[in-house]
Amino acid sequence: MRLVIVTGMSGAGKSTALKMLEDAGYFCVDNIPIQLIYKLVILTSTDAKEFDKIALGVDIRSGQALDELNEVLETMEEEGYDFEILFLDASTEVLVKRFKETRRTHPLAVNTRLEYGIEKEREKLEFLKKKADYKIDTSKLLVRELKAEVDQIFVLNQQYHNFFINIVSFGFKYGMPTDGDLVFDVRFLPNPYYVDNLRQLTGNDKEVKNYVMESPVAVDFSNKLEDMIQFLIPHYIAEGKNQLVICIGCTGGKHRSVTLANELYNRLRKLEYGLKVEHRDIEKDSRG
Q: pTM score, two decimals?
């Protein structure tokens, strides 16, 4: 029997993940009382054929009983019951936005500001995050991207690393991304904007890519950037970081930055980490 405990921050996508697991054939129970978890495990383990895959949703709605969960999990470990913990997280800024868009009330923010409730929830769930086998930050994930992550772990049974890399191209004239961990300026590279037949194209087009990457400097930069990222990742993981946002900028975010972001994405695809490329300003009419 495979038992998955799905937990995490309110608004981070726990219910969505449970629905995905249910579609994948898991027997799912959301917001199960803490006191019933051990009893349910014992009950379902007697019929392993019918209940071969189980997912239990546990979150801050358990209230004071949440404090008992650690003891329940330790008991299950002592009794030889295997389980995995999936923790879904998101930045406070994103969670606030999601709650305001849906007009839902945060469980811990009934009589206080939403931000305070979210931070209090982080404190209460910290012990679960530390115990989690899988941590997924959904701040920048689309639903289909979350599904791909969930399928990779619980359907395809592929090796998973709790680290996700976001590569973002942008234009400096539209402002730098506020969430970038590493920011690189590629305005020193040849600019396709000044080539008439390339101006209306983007870094996603083969002609622009070839023009930019024909520069030996662009190749040298890509080689050095790849080496540095691969050097940094293990150190970020050791520090406890589970997400890295790499921003690559040019003047308008349409030509050079897009090309270099795509180049880095293709180079890092061989690594066994979550990976996504996003072109923030590619649709804006701007200088490359």
A: 0.65
Interval 219-231: pLDDT, tens: 999 999 999 999 9
**Residue 187 CB coordination number (10 Å):** 14
pLDDT value at residue 14: 93
Give domain limits for the chain.
2-154, 164-279
CA distances from 172 to 81, 110, 222, 278, 285 (A): 53, 40, 20, 15, 13
The 3-state DSSP class for residue 220 equals helix
Per the CB < 8 A criterion, the answer to whether 245 and 166 are in contact is yes
Query: Is residue 86 within 8 Å of residue 6, measured between CB atoms?
Result: yes
Per-residue model confidence (pLDDT) at position 162: 64
Please check whether residue 249 is in contact with residue 186, taking contact to mean a CB–CB distance below 8 angstroms.
yes
Question: 2-154 in CATH: which number?
Answer: 3.40.50.300
